[in-house]
Amino acid sequence: MSNREYAKQLIDQIPEGKILYAVYFLQGMTAPDDTPNDETLEAIAEVERMIRTGEGEHFSGSTADFLAMMTEN
Fold first, then answer.
1. Exposure pattern of 38-69 as b/e (b: 16+ CB <10 Å)?
2. pLDDT tens digit string along 40-72?
3. Rg value, the chain, Cα
């Protein structure tokens, strides 16, 4: 019997009043991990290069100010 089959058998034995705990646990286990993908790693490297070389545009201000600037026509 595989671990998956065994886990399913155990789930079937959990009383209805406690099944919600198992659901929460399983949801946590199925969430994607926090490991950045290749695209994110490339973006991080680009920002680090921009900081190191002084390239690009730097914004200092609040998020609200930044969003206002981005939506100006």
1. eeeeeeeeeeeeeeeeeeeeeeeeeeeeeeee
2. 999 999 999 998 998 888 788 999 999 998 898
3. 23
